[in-house]
Amino acid sequence: MEWIKSNLNLFKANFRKETIELRRYLPNTIAMLLTVYIIFMAMFAGIHSVGAPGTVDATIQNTIVNYIFWYLTITIVNGQGYEILTEATRGTFEQLGMSPSGIWRILSARLLAQGILTAAMMIVLLYLSMLTTGQSLNVDFVTIIPIFLLTCISMFGLSFIIAGLTVIVKQIQAFLQIFQFVLAALTFVSLSRAPFLVFFPITKGVDMIRAVMVEGLTLNELGFSNFLVLTTNALVYFIIGLATYLYCERYAMKKGLLAHY
Amino acid sequence: MDSIIEVSGITKVYQKRKTKEKIQAVDNISFQVKRGEIIGLLGPNGAGKTTTIKMICGLLKPDSGQILINGVDNEKHRLRALTHISAVLEGSRNLYWRLTVRENLEYFAGNRGVSRKNVASRVEDLLQKFRLKDKETELVNRLSRGMQQKLAIAVAMLADTEVILLDEPTLGLDIETGYEVREILKAIAKEENRTVIISSHDMDVIQDICERTIIINQGKVVTDDRIEDLLKLFEVRSYTITLGEHLNEKQEHLIKERFLDYQYESNRIQPKLSVELLKTEDIYQLFDILKLNETPVEAIDREIIQFEQVFMKIVKGETTNGVDQVKSQSV
């Protein structure tokens, strides 16, 4: 009971911090959303002008889903790296290290908070995109939410790997910029074109969400096997991610790199 | 009083990335801190103070040795050990500059798993105590350096841990704020009955607040003693005698022979003779020499040693009067 309470307080504190910062720097938040939206509209215009007339609708619908997930993935996965960089530079990272909650739990609470807030913003963006493009996607929350949550777990795993690398290397900005394109590949490429991506994080989940939102598949139609693969993938990546992070943290503590920038 | 911190034989060697050169930051350090004690950790730059503090905090793993915090091994059970410790390591840099004073306090409490409700009265109390109440809604980046420093200490206090580690709490503060922070630290020491370890270059802070000091030099503990005892130990039996007349050759020769450490300033209207005695009784020998020529004595002044001088003597490895080696004791 005490453990649950303590974790809940930890989450609440981090959710509050994220909300305060988003609200306090509202123009920044709005500018960020506008940028995402403008880039999307540019992509939409591009597809419209060069896409084959017969497949243009499906392409736009896929693009909406892919793009929104790409943005969400960048925010969660790379965001963690940037966050640690900022904390190490400012000097607050050591304070996180001094908490009996442990850095990984604080980072998890932040990830969860950021995940919820970014997802809320993405829902707004999703409806805005549908409204602007005149495309209608199947927003079946009952089917989407479990897939989304499982996909997020694999995202968190990947994010822990990035966090671990950042704790050791610190000057990782260039890598994070390149990594955006790796994340683009994981979210944009369909499993039907690259089946091996099923072993990678995120792809399976985005593929299933595309099937729900674009093709209109339901929970039953997706079937147990798809969920089994997704769950296994999510858990494996989360465990690998967390283990990698904890190893990197121990290594950093041994070498004196924890707050070193 | 039982020990709350037990440091046994910790060592830490860093390796430079490019040259692979090894640097011994901490070399087999051992000491114990009793519950409720206020310890000053002193040493010149690069002595190994911060490395030692970070190892106690569990932010850095020692290459060998063991640190027990309230009986808990801080390497094997790091998080459990951290429930007994809080620290201010980089002062104002330990805060979230985009959050307000109150939000920082509440956020750090949350990170320790404590709810805002449970910490509310403590936050109020600290805001009052640290004279930050009127700044509670102010963003940290708009506060002065001194206020940020006070807030960082308040954050560490909020955790209600038995041990607080403060690394350079007065560094970079102006005289007024430095004094205020010092007063706050004194109050913490008196009223809160916590174990406090302060690492500082500010001798006044250490002398003012700490009961005991551990001096580290080149990664080793060179002294671990009560400040009072150190001052006594290094108490200079040094006297400056203002004379009414110049000493003659014989007198000078005798002084040179009997007193190892002396200085004679003859180029003054009233010559001055400074001698360092091994024993207080040796002053009679000096008087005997002065009596040889009936040299009049105008004044006798005894030099009072400052803690800063003691520190410098220890760091330079100087011996004390009648003591062959710098006293090093484990308490």
From TrEMBL, chain A:
InterPro entries: Nod_factor_ABC_transporter. It comes from the Bacteria. The chain crosses the membrane at residues 25-47, 67-85, 106-129, 141-169, 181-202, 222-248. The keyword Flavoprotein does not apply. Keywords: Membrane, Transmembrane, Transmembrane helix. The keyword Transmembrane helix applies. This is ABC transporter permease.
Automatic annotation (TrEMBL), chain B:
InterPro entries: AAA+_ATPase, ABC_transporter-like_ATP-bd, ABC_transporter_ATP-binding, P-loop_NTPase. Keywords: ATP-binding, Nucleotide-binding, Transport. The keyword Membrane does not apply. The keyword Nucleotide-binding applies. One of its GO terms (molecular function) is ATP binding. Residues 5-243 form the ABC transporter domain. Gene3D superfamilies: P-loop containing nucleotide triphosphate hydrolases (3.40.50.300). Signal peptide: none annotated. Belongs to the ABC transporter superfamily. This is ABC transporter ATP-binding protein.
